[in-house]
Amino acid sequence: MSKHGKVLVAMSGGIDSSVAAMMLHEQGYEVIGITMKTWDYASSGSSKRETGCCSLDSINDARSMAVSFGFPHYILDIREEFGTRIIDNFVDEYLAGRTPNPCVLCNTHIKWESLLKRADMLDCEFIATGHYAQIRKENNRMVVSKGVDETKDQTYVLWGLTQESLNRTIFPLGTYKKPEIRQIALESGFADLAKKSESYDICFIPDNDYRAFLKHRLPDLEAKVEGGDYVFKGKKVGTHRGYPFYTIGQRKGLDIAIGEPVFVKEIIPESNTVVLGDLEDLKEMGIHVRDFNLIKYASLPQDYVALTKIRYKDPGRLSTINEIDNKLNIVFHEAATGIAPGQSAVIYEGNDVVGGGFIDRKPLKKL
Questions:
Q1: Other C-beta atoms within 10 Å of 351: how many?
Q2: How high is the pLDDT of residue 203?
Q3: Which of 54, 103, 106, 124 is catalytic?
Q4: H or E element: which one contains 9?
């Protein structure tokens, strides 16, 4: 009989999830490891050697860790549901002129759903991951907050998790910094694990070239969309390679010179138009947010003020937030630049995640 109950730990084979499993085992939980096979790189058209969470090496590393501590380990093949829910959405979002946020969708609809389903099958009370985040119960709600190591904080991609999911979730690494995790692995005899490099790419795009991925998935796409108009200050100033191959705020790789620095301001898929602007043109005072999920509170008061991040590395800015017509209306106290529809807007109260949602295609008009 375990001291704390049974926990199903998502193990990618990397240092974070491996140390998380080791910690829980040493704390007296009955640990079961599970590695989810979400993707194989042969399907991506990449020439890069298969690495990362879905590679055979990573799966073997996760299994070796489990064997060394004597707890069970399973491999879960979810490539079909991952392809349907994540890959198809990724392609569809670019075709709609938006910039997708696959990690949020994957955490919400693939990883947690799959983990909880298998946890029930294996009679596990809890699930755990190697995310750098913290979780607590407050006012009868589960609250997610930033991990101690803000350079590794991953709360931005966790805003979609439900109260039911969070009630069974453990984040063992939330009170640690990354160097401490490496030291724990080293002192536990896992030198190779401690030296493992990290990947910041999207898992199914190992070379971080989403354009090549789109072309591989849709071989006739380039021919269909090339030659669209670049528009600057209301006038056509050139032609581009096709609207899906650009993102809001992009400056490099535009292959156009008009005498001043320009950025992608807007993408209009209906007319295959990429609207350019200067830095001032990129400034917006607010956004609409769809498909939002609240974590810390069941609802927000009128004119609620909090910090809003519009991208993963965004420091955020104070905002006034109201719920209108099943969307969040967010007005920034200072202008934001490079707002990309399809990305996540995540609301913070101090270190706590209030909630988040997807940025709508049309930002608010300048105020």
A1: 16
A2: 82
A3: 106
A4: strand 6-10
* Residues 320-347: tens digit of each pLDDT: 999 998 999 999 999 999 899 999 999 9
Q: Which of 72, 42, 70, 64 is nearest to 55 (CA)?
A: 42
Q: Assess whether 26 and 42 both reside in one domain.
A: yes
Structure tokens at 44: 């991506």
Our count of domains for the chain comes to 3
What tens digit of pLDDT does each residue of 178-229 get? 999 999 999 998 888 877 776 666 888 877 899 999 999 999 999 999 999 9
What does the pLDDT average to over 266-278? 96
CA distance 81 to 53: 17
Global confidence as pTM: 0.91
Domain boundary among 233, 250, 281: 281
Give the single-character DSSP code of 52.
S
> Domain containing 86 — which CATH number?
3.40.50.620
Helix, strand or coil for residue 331?
strand
CA 193 to chain centre: 24
Residues 120 and 54 in one domain: yes
46 C-beta neighbours (distance < 10 Å), count: 19
Question: What is the rounded average pLDDT of the residues 282-310?
Answer: 96
**Contact between 68 and 33 (Cβ < 8 Å):** no
Contacts of 24 (CB under 8 A, 6+ apart): 7, 9, 31, 128, 170, 172
What gap in Å lies between CA 39 and CA 203, rounded to an integer? Answer: 8
Whether the per-residue pLDDT at 170 is higher than 60: the answer is yes
Could you tell me the CA-to-CA distances from 25 to 72, 120, 277 in Å, in that order? 11, 19, 54
Reference 362, options 337, 346, 341; nearest CA is: 341
Instruction: Please write the tens of the pLDDT for every residue from 75-93.
Output: 999 999 899 899 999 999 9
Backbone angles phi, psi at 352, to 5 degrees: -90, 140
The yes-or-no answer on residue 106 being catalytic is: yes
Bridge partners of 327, per DSSP, are 324
Q: Taking Cα atoms as reference points, which of 25, 19, 315, 68 lies closest to residue 178?
A: 19
